[in-house]
Amino acid sequence: MTQKKTETKEIAGLLCRLIVGGVFIYAGVIKVLAPAEEFAFAIESYRVLNAQLSLYAAYAMPWIELYAGLLLAAGVFTRLSALLTGALLASFEVMLGQAWLRHLPVTSCGCFGNSKSNSLAHEFIQNIGLLVLTWAAFKYGGAWSGDRLVEKP
Amino acid sequence: MVNQKNARLAALAFTLIFVSTIAMLLARQFDLGPERPSPAFRTFGPANAPVHIYEYTDFSCPACRGAAGKIDEMIKVFGAGLRVSFKHYPLTGIHPWSLQAAVYADCAGEQGKFREYGALLFENQEKWAFVKETPKEFEEYAGQLKLDWPKMQACAENPETKKLIRLEMAEGDMKNVNATPTFFVNGHRAVGAGQLIDQAMKFDNLLKKGAQ
Q1: Which residues have CB under 8 Å from A128's CB, separation 6+?
Q2: Does B22 contact A at CB distance below 8 Å?
Q3: Which candidate from B5, B17, B32 shows the least CB-CB separation from A33?
Q4: B33 and A33 in contact by Cβ < 8 A?
Q5: What are the structural domain ranges in chain B?
Q6: Is there a cis peptide before residue B181, judged by omega within 30 degrees of 0?
Q7: Helices within B79-191 (DSSP H only)
Q8: What percent of chain A has pLDDT over 90?
Q9: Contact A47/A104 with Cβ under 8 angstroms?
């Protein structure tokens, strides 16, 4: 009975890992293949960073998202990757939350490149969902992972 | 044992990062990113046309003036077989007023006269392209076309207008556009009017079929 429970948790953890990792890979690839300026304009609209810093962030962030997503989906340093992904999501929440509270006219959240985004509130709540999945991946995401693979003799 | 495990994981992580980086850089090089549409006022021809040309252009560039005539002719000849979208790629390093010209052309476009305003800019290129002071021609052409000049000025001062053009310049950079006019005929690159005709000839059947 306990073993079955553990298996269910592990499968759920694997799914969470793949979902969050997949979302990050998709977001990263879409932005890496687009001009950095496009994402930079979205970052600027949050009015936290100036134009120059927004551009630097726009150069770096898509690659970080891609790598974090890949490592999490593949289960390489699973807990560390989940922590990194969680930290990224938390920072996105701070950005979204302050823009939401300040009623900033953010037309594209920049989450998935040029594609039209939902309202800030919608994105904020969606990210909370992703944070919960990341927590599950952190706690139970060991199945079918790179971590387990290297443990085998 | 722990160290060996970590070393293996580090090697795995490095491989993933290395392979994904190379794959992304290659995808960029082969231009596999999505094509961004031009605003409706800069796009001519039906959406279902079998041949779609994107032109990266600069109103101060003499070769673009020459190509504009060719494009107009092609639009007339192939009608429904061809869709043309213009994208700005002002060479600001050598053409001091090209960005401003693109801004005003877009603002004229917002009032429904992008092509007409662009035609006047090309036609009189030598009058305004290299002057020292802000060219008075921008206002003059707006007057000739009976455009609302205060509205155009407000549009030109709106940062969003310039943002769109800067984004297209960045997109051009990503596609390795470094000369104007550069065309993408159904995704195939052509630089200058001569190459445009050569590329278009490859789609001759589609153009003729679509035109019927």
Answers
A1: A93
A2: no
A3: B32
A4: yes
A5: 1-30, 40-211
A6: yes
A7: 98-110, 114-123, 125-128, 137-144, 149-157, 159-174
A8: 73
A9: yes
Which CATH number does the domain B40-211 belong to among 3.30.40.230, 3.40.718.10, 3.40.640.10, 3.40.30.10?
Answer: 3.40.30.10
Each residue's pLDDT tens digit, B161-208: 999 999 999 999 888 888 899 999 998 889 999 999 988 888 888 888
Angle in degrees, CA A88, A94, A100, rounded to 5 = 135
- The per-residue pLDDT of chain B, averaged, comes to 92
Of the two residues B30 and B202, the one the predictor is more confident about is B202
B31 Cβ under 8 Å from any chain A Cβ: no
CA-based nearest residue to A20, from A77, A83, A63: A83
Nearest to B174 among A35, A67, A74 (CB): A35
CA trace torsion A128, A130, A135, A138 (10° rounding): -160
Mutation target for B interface from A70, A78, A150: give the one with most B CBs within 10 A. Answer: A150
Predicted confidence (pLDDT) at residue B35 exceeds the cutoff of 80: no
Contact at 8 Å (CB) between A48 and A98?
Answer: yes
Q: Is B13 close to A38, i.e. CB distance below 8 A?
A: no
User: What is the pTM assigned to this prediction?
Assistant: 0.79
Mutate to test the interface with A, among B9, B164, B165 (most CBs of A within 10 A): B9
Contacts of B21 in chain A (CB under 8 A): 63
Q: What percent of chain B has pLDDT over 90?
A: 74
Cβ(A76)–Cβ(B13) below 8 Å: yes
What value of ipTM does the predicted structure carry?
0.91
